[in-house]
Design goal:
globular; D-Maltodextrin-Binding Protein, domain 2; three-stranded antiparallel beta sheet
Length: about 425
């Protein structure tokens, strides 16, 4: 109840302050700017407190805040864009950034990073690349995620297996470990992706030097079915040995508490780093996190850092300089991050992660550690997915189930997916 009252007080106080500021100053005051985000009670409270901290450190600066839920956020922004009334500083999403950049609605941040107003010196290049379109930096994420394998250390120990060095292990190592675990403990392995097959196959595809989609999103980024066939063949070998959980059991949507890993039926699960706490709570036992193994003759790192929530500046912002300074405060200021506490994801600046790390619980520390490991073993993220992505994901999941149920061969399944996916994308 105290939290609710505090949030209401913050909102009321902010509204009173900003209403007066807007009517008096508007866009003509270089010490006035607008900030918008989608949120929830926790994010709203922490963001408002961070805004108040900035204003206390910068007397005379007024920040008008606007927040809505995710559902109505983009409709509101599109309406504001049509009216030429976008806020200066905008919380943005990777899935929408490409279209906004192509419509010239976002400001290139490069000048602010070059003059140091927005400090990116502690941010890995792979994390910055996610906010670039056609060589211009339009966005920087306040937080980041990475995809990995969560595993059960007790099962590995029972099977007499040392935890592999996930910066060096291979798909062959993975297959041998899965077989040994099953032979020694009876614990099986989940198929490589059930809810979203694409995100895991994509890791191996990226290692081959290809991408799931072409850069323009108008066709698939690969045409050779060989890697997709081998991806399924590996799992079929485990299935034939009894070590893989069958498709009719695995391809069922259940809660975290009811999935095969939480119930001890699988020694691993495939998750994003921000799901570590939920996974650990569901499993109710110690867990660990690994990078994905490497294919033979890998040409690049398959792991990538996925932005959780971008900040951007509107192309026609009234006060872009003020917005850039507030942007930098959220991104780099340690006092601000004491308040934000990684609610928007693991912070991308290395020094901010190091500063917050001792303040985190054990599961959040694991998330921080894994993101740092992934950052050192990743390559640039591919461009955002095209609009047809949802239909193509459903197609891949359906064919994966057919292959792992042995109603379709791996060769036929791989060829069928490539042909049908390109047809969905409009390839003649």
């Amino acid at each position: 109840m105290r939290k609710v009252l505090l949030l209401l007080a913050l909102v009321v106080a902010s509204a009173m302050l900003f209403a007066g500021a807007k009517s008096d100053a508007g866009g003509s005051d270089k010490n006035y700017m607008r900030l918008t985000w989608w949120g929830n009670t926790v994010r709203d409270e922490r963001t408002l407190k961070t805004v108040q901290l900035y204003q206390s450190k910068n007397p005379g600066v007024t920040i008008e805040t606007e927040t809505t839920g995710w559902a109505g956020y983009w409709d509101k922004l599109n309406t504001q864009a049509s009216a030429g009334n976008l806020p200066d500083l905008i919380q943005h999403d990777y899935g929408y950034m490409l279209q906004w950049a192509n419509r010239n609605q976002l400001l290139d941040l490069t000048p602010y990073t070059q003059n140091g107003v927005i400090d990116v010196s502690k941010i890995p290049a792979s994390a910055l690349s996610a906010g670039k379109v056609n060589g211009k930096l339009y966005a920087i994420s306040l937080g980041t995620n990475a995809l990995g394998m969560v595993y059960d250390p007790a099962v590995l120990a029972k099977a007499g297996i040392n935890v592999p060095d996930s910066t060096k292990w291979t798909l062959k190592d993975f297959e041998n470990i899965a077989l040994t675990i099953y032979q020694k403990t009876g614990v099986r392995t989940l198929p490589l992706g059930t809810t979203d097959v694409k995100v895991i196959f994509e890791i191996f595809l990226r290692q081959s030097g290809a991408s799931f989609y072409a850069p323009d999103g108008k066709k698939l980024g690969f045409s050779d079915p060989a890697l997709l066939k081998e991806y399924w063949d590996l799992q079929l070998r485990l299935l034939d040995a009894g070590a893989l959980i069958p498709a009719d059991e695995a391809f069922v949507t259940v809660s975290v508490e009811e999935d095969a890993f939480s119930k001890g039926q699988s020694w691993l699960q495939y998750i994003w780093s921000n799901q570590i706490t939920a996974t650990a709570n569901g499993a109710k036992r110690p867990i660990g996190m690994l990078l994905f193994p490497a294919i033979d003759n890998a040409k690049r790192k398959g792991t990538y850092l996925k932005p959780s929530m971008f900040f951007t500046i509107a192309a026609k912002a009234e006060n872009p300089d003020a917005a850039a300074k507030v942007f930098n405060f959220f991104l780099n200021d340690l006092g601000a991050n004491d308040i934000l506490l990684a609610e928007r994801g693991v912070p991308v600046p290395e020094n901010v992660r190091s500063y917050l790390f001792p303040k985190m619980d054990d599961n959040m520390k694991m998330s921080f550690d894994f993101v740092s490991l992934a950052a050192a073993n990743s390559s640039d993220i591919d461009p955002p997915d095209p609009a047809a992505n949802g239909e193509i994901l459903a197609l891949l999941r359906d064919i994966a189930q057919q292959v792992l149920s042995k109603s379709v061969s791996s060769s036929e399944g791989a060829t069928r997916f490539i042909t049908k996916a390109n047809q969905i994308l409009g390839v003649q």
